[in-house]
Amino acid sequence: MASRAPVADPQLNPAADVATLPCQNPTLLAVGTMLASLLQILDTTIANVAIPHMQAALGATPDEISWVLTSYIVAVALAMPLTGWLSDRIGSRRLFMASVAGFVLSSMLCGMAQNVTQMVIFRALQGATGAFISPLSQSVMIDTNKPSRQSQMMALWGMGIMVGPILGPILGGWLTENWNWRSVFYVNVPLGVIALAIMAAELPSRPLLRRRFDLTGFFLVALTLTSVQLLLDRGNHIDWFESMESWLYVLIAASAAWIGAIHLATAREPLFNRLLFADANYLFALFFTLIVGVVMFANMALLPPMLQRLFGYGVIDTGEAMMPRGVGTLVAMQVSGMIIRKGVDPRLLIAAGFGLAGYSLYQMSGWSLDTSYQDIAISGFVQGVGVGLVFIPLNASAFATLSPALRTDGASLLNLSRSIGSSVGISVVISLMARNLQVSHADLASHVTSSFSTMIDVSALDRFQTLGEAALRLIDAEVNRQAAMIAYLDDFYAMMWLSLLTIPLIAFMRRADLSVDARLANARGKADGEPPVDLPH
User: Are 336 and 387 spatial neighbours (Cβ–Cβ below 8 Å)?
Assistant: First the structure.
């Protein structure tokens, strides 16, 4: 049947502008949904600041305390692929509320942990229960709002996703300094209860679908993701590929991924609907989301330690220096949401966003130990604008041609892609920094000679015994400082090229018409029982 012409005015056909899952108060539900999503995103970074305090209080070794972070990340990666099946099986409302309730309860248990074993178990439980929150919140924000408001809701949802990692270290540091490390987990309880109460009153549910569980597919996906995450999290501790443990992880991940791909292509009812992978724009969105995870979250992992260790910033000062990045993201998300509703090609915004992110990283690659607060704030704002311009058009393009039945599965894969991207990015940049630190230290140290300084004669320091040793330590500390700065700049330079090299690939995406008129035409076709208008063209 031929597609109908786009609706010129929403008021002329109000039946077309109807949410897939109507609710009485979508604004209040959006507040509850965003609160739950923000808590889960915050917890990926908020506990990092409290790790040293936690280690001292629980009497844990560095290797043991690292599992507090690793257990959470691995649990999230394992549970997230189950989102679509569980949502169809028990209902999206029940799953969302159970996920938030489980997250609140496990947060309380983390705050009550008495030893490192309990903490690792409770953190794994927190990750497993909270893994469903992010993809479900994304699909809820789309399903419970009219087509004409979906871009605004995606911008609102994106704010929590992007601002959460920025606020996490700041809030975690403030709570740890003014209270104790346990308050980092206890803060989730009252806010989580508020979110749960709002959802209990307003959250609708999708119809149940008795879908067979693909145990083989889940096992293969879980094995792949667990091996990859363990490799990324354990790599630095075991000296990467100098250890047989790393090669074991690679072998298991490669084998499981290969068998899993064959199973996905041939199984009667695979874990993920194959229609997801038939949509070219969705596949590109998965890839670009992975890149956003690398550039955004890896950068977020580098900046706080750099500002605190090399520039001497405190926790609050670090937060203030990084705040412009969040402001830029908020502004760009609102602007990009308004622009795509006017029918502008979203690929242009995505390309501009990656270009701005690359330019900001170029600015950062020219920093020195004398860089001012103003320069840090400006580059952070530019980078925030870039990420904000990418995020909304990218997510909107990914969901433009997915049927409502595929949204939950699609959201879980997109969130999983971002999570994997952030894990890969953080591990890679930290490894590069450690390697480049050693190389730069050796190079700088080779230039410390008797002519190194007019104030200190290095060749004569051994005559002064204790004072000479103190002077050498002082010189070594400065060499370390300079070498660390060079290593950070190398990482910024690498991420700059990754951002810029992504731009040409955007041309392979199909254009998606995300204007209000196109969304309403698509919705009207569904309401009249016609096939939806094919938005990309």
Answer: no
Predicted confidence at residue 3, as pLDDT, reads 38
In 91-132, where does DSSP find H-type helix? 92-112, 116-130
CATH architecture of 9-213: Up-down Bundle (1.20)
Are the C-beta atoms of 409 and 180 separated by less than 8 Å?
no
Q: Map residue 533 onto helix, strand or coil.
A: coil
Residue type, 496: M
pLDDT given at position 339:
85
d(CA 173, CA 524): 50
Q: How far apart are CA 169 and CA 417, in angstroms?
A: 23
Q: In this structure, are residues 315 and 148 in contact, taking their beta carbons and an 8 Å threshold?
A: no
Domain boundaries, the chain: 9-213, 215-267, 272-424+492-537
Name 12's Cβ contacts closer than 8 Å, sequence gap at least 6. none
Kindly state the tokens that stand for 276: 């997801």
Residue 348 · residue 479 · CB < 8 Å = no
Backbone angles phi, psi at 512, to 5 degrees: -115, 125
Distance of CA 53 to CAs 40, 174, 180, 389, Å?
Answer: 22, 13, 8, 38
Q: Which parts of the chain register pLDDT below 70? A: 1-17, 48-49, 62-63, 151, 162, 166, 315, 448-472, 512-537
CA separation, residue 510 to residues 55, 154, 397, 535 (Å): 50, 20, 9, 10
Integer-rounded Cα radius of gyration of the chain: 25
User: What are residue 249's phi and psi, to 5 degrees?
Assistant: -60, -40
Strand partners, 536: 512
Tell me how many degrees the CA angle 303-391-34 measures, rounded to the nearest 5: 85
| pLDDT at residue 251, as a whole number | 94
Residue 535 confidence (pLDDT): 35
Q: Cα(141)–Cα(156) distance, rounded to whole angstroms?
A: 9
Q: Is domain 272-424+492-537 given the CATH code 2.40.10.120 in the classification? A: no
Structural contact between residues 394 and 285, judged by C-beta atoms closer than 8 angstroms: yes
Rounded Cα–Cα distance for residues 468 and 177 (Å): 38
pLDDT given for residue 467 in this prediction? 60
Task: Determine contact, residues 298/403, Cβ cutoff 8 Å.
Answer: no
| Other residues' Cβ atoms within 10 Å of the Cβ of residue 323 | 18
Q: Which helix (H) or strand (E) holds 15?
A: none
Residue 387's Cβ-side half-sphere holds a number of Cα atoms within 13 Å equal to 31
Alpha carbon separation from 434 to 411, 429, 487, 490 (Å, rounded): 35, 9, 8, 11
Domains 9-213 and 272-424+492-537 share a fold: yes
User: Is residue 41 within 8 Å of 134, Cβ to Cβ?
Assistant: yes
Taken as a whole, the chain contains a residue count of: 537
